[in-house]
Amino acid sequence: MSSPTTQMLNGLWASSSSDYFAVGGEIWHYDWTSWSKMSSLNDFNWLWGVHGTSSSDVFAVGYWGTIVHYDGVTWSPMKTNTDAHLQSVWASQSDVFVVGYDGTILHYHREVPVLKITKARMVSPSELGIDIEVTFPKDAPEESLRKVDFWASINGVPVSKTFDITRLVQPGDTNKEISFNYGSEWIEDPVPPRIINLADEGVPRFENNVAFALCGKCYWEGGLYSQEWAIPVEIPLPVIIIHGYLYTHKVDGWFLEKVADKLAYEGLGDFLGDYGYTNDSSWYRTLWSMPEITYEADKVTESEMYSIVELWVGAALQATYADRVNLIGHSTGGLVARYYSGTASTVDKVISIGTPHLGLTDFYANAFDKPNKEKADEIMRVPGTNEENLLRWFEPQYGESCLINAETGQPIEPEPYENSFNAAYNNDVHYYSIYANNRETLYKLWVRKRKNGTGWYEIVDPPDGAVNTCPGDGYVPAESTSAFPGGDSSILISGTNGGGTSKPHVFLCQDPEVQKKVLELLRK
After folding, report:
1. 286, 357, 413, 483: which one has the fewest Cβ atoms less than 10 Å from its Cβ?
2. What string of DSSP letters covers 254-306?
């Protein structure tokens, strides 16, 4: 490389690979293409050292106490209280140090802007809103534009955005709180809100929970920058909680929803709310539950149930920037979630809680309570039709028959019904089953043929000493809730060896250990 001058050059500093400053008898600038002269000895004394923080914040020092500053446009002398020869300079945003002859050390402290990103969250289906707190020093030029830069890598895409906050903060303002929409609602000449539209930035929709660091700095044009500030941002996939059969079951003509919601499900929603999930539709909603999410298992067919879940999922996707949801199903709700996810491409995780994956013995207890098979079959049909409802999903498919002939002591074969639950596992979905086995749970029924000649069965007391229970949650045997051959894992919350939940089946979602495990799986 040929030199642009015959003058002696003593110092060199670069803010980037295309921004070099050389000082000596003259000041030169190199942009990786060519050198350009910025000043000469006619302007300043001989210079020895140069350093800065950016291409618009450069210091040079030299003979007779000379310090000059470049603001991106002009080199200007600075007042010093020494005539010593100065040889070296180092600068940061807030401090400048200079050394020279006769042990001279100079320190110049500069007041710089301060930025804190106080909050960053989704404020609409595609927009990230950013709240900040800023301070600008009193000596910041009133006429200079005050700005804030943000940058992040969101779902694999680099995103950067600059906002003009000149009219929102003045020189001398300290810890000025500026919400993302402050100024945007002004009637006259509103200020654009501090939002990043993910769609406009080319960020793909979320197929998993998304976490990233949002960074920022504030400054005035041609002036000083604040230190960088970073805040972690987490955007979870939406969650849909699907209730069990009893939620819409009638007792003497009265629905149990309000009681069931309060006692069985409200706690799980509140718990997730403490960790960033919300059912507030005025912002970025991430949680759907009862009473909005409801169905009646005895009044819908499998295909109708699929369509109902499709509507729930569609609403969640429309309200968020997600392409997938997570389904939490309690009891029958876990079967509903499994059935839908088997062929849907919009589910990331299915978390079942106390779900009878292999049915439950109570299925037969209800059936044999009827006087004949025809009456029992009516339970399994949508009222007024011949179409099967979801109650057939409960037929036991344990490894050992749960029906015992009271007269022979032998299992009844074949069993009276054929299983109608046949949900495939989707390889693109993560399945988890949370269960308990610390309560005695109905497992075997002793039955005999009714004497009315119908060929139907009735339940009788088990023989003395016979065991008709097994470990479970008080309603569903652990053999059924833990059986998950196509799932990622089955998680035992409480065992018969002590410890764990004391909640029975209906209230499993209220159990603190269950809630913690649900959150852990959602974040997994």
Report:
1. 413
2. EE-HHHHIIIIIHHHHHHHHTTT----TTS---EE-TTTS---GGG--HHHHH
Q: Are 430 and 349 in contact (CB under 8 A)?
A: yes
CATH number of 239-523: 3.40.50.1820
Q: What is the pLDDT of residues 364-415, one digit of tens each?
A: 888 888 998 888 889 889 999 999 999 989 988 886 788 899 988 888 865 5
Contacts (Cβ under 8 Å, ≥6 apart) of 288: 238, 239, 240, 241, 279, 312, 315, 316
Cis status, amide bond into 4, omega within 30 of 0: no
Name the token pair of 210.
């998304």
CA 368 remoteness from chain centre: 47
The dihedral formed by the CA atoms of 162, 165, 170 and 171, expressed in degrees to the nearest 10:
0
Rounded to the nearest integer, the mean pLDDT of the chain is 90
Q: What is the pLDDT of residues 153-164, one digit of tens each?
A: 999 999 999 999
pTM of the model: 0.83
C-alpha–C-alpha distance, residues 464 and 254, integer Å: 38
Q: Per CATH, which fold does 9-108 belong to?
A: Neuraminidase (2.120.10)
Residue 55 to residue 429: CA distance in whole angstroms: 51
Nearest Cα residue to 58 out of 91, 103, 104: 91
DSSP 8-state symbol, 343: T
C-alpha 223 chain-centroid distance: 37
> 114-235 is classed in which CATH architecture?
Sandwich (2.60)
Q: Residue 249 is encoded by which pair of tokens?
A: 């079951």
DSSP 466-496: ---EEEEBSSSBHHHHS--TTSSEEEEEEBT
What residue ranges do the domains of the chain occupy?
Answer: 9-108, 114-235, 239-523
